[in-house]
Structure formats: structure tokens, C-alpha cells
Design brief:
The protein has five helices and no strands. With about 110 residues, the protein is mainly α. The protein is globular, with a radius of gyration of 13 Å. About 30% of the residues are buried. The mean pLDDT is about 95.
Amino acid sequence: WQSAGTWVHHERAHYGVAVAAGAAGDASAQLDAALQGLALLSLRDTAGEQGVDRAFLELEQAHALQRLARHGDAASARARADALAASFGDASLTTWYRERLDRHRQLTPP
């Protein structure tokens, strides 16, 4: 997406990297990618139109922070993600969000 696409595509690419890094067990890379996507949203989404994207990036950030034992920061990111997800108003997005939560539970050792 570096040579084609918009800033939204770049932000979503960061999300994809965060998801992949989380699945691979690399919490540091997951956090870095999530933070890059969130920074891009903060810079470019001045109208706040990408709430769904922000929710999923916050969720990836929360998962990474939990794995890095930064529990307070993880809880804050999760609360932001949950608040955004509560306003989806779309059953398929809510289902996807719940599926990501389930996947994070599967990826996090007890």
C-alpha cells in the first residue's frame, strides 16, 4: 500500500500486521503495528469516521499490552475498544469483534 491506496489502506495494513504479529506471538511487533495504525488515525481521521478501525486497533493494542504484562495500559485500551464497539450498530461487526476477543483468549497462555 505504500505506492497505491489511501491513508486508510495504510492504516488497515498496520492492523493486518498487528493481527499477524499477535498470532505469531510477537507482542512487541503487535503493539508497534497497532500504535502505528492508531497514530495514523489520530493524524488523518480528524472527522472521526474510522471508529470501527480504531476499535479493532485498540483491541490489538490491548492484547499486546496484556501479553507484555502492562495490565493497566491493557485495561485502558480494552475499555476504549469496548466503548467503540458498543456503538457499532451492525451485527456483523459485533460478531467480528467478539471473534477477535475469542481469538485473543486462545492466543494468550493461562
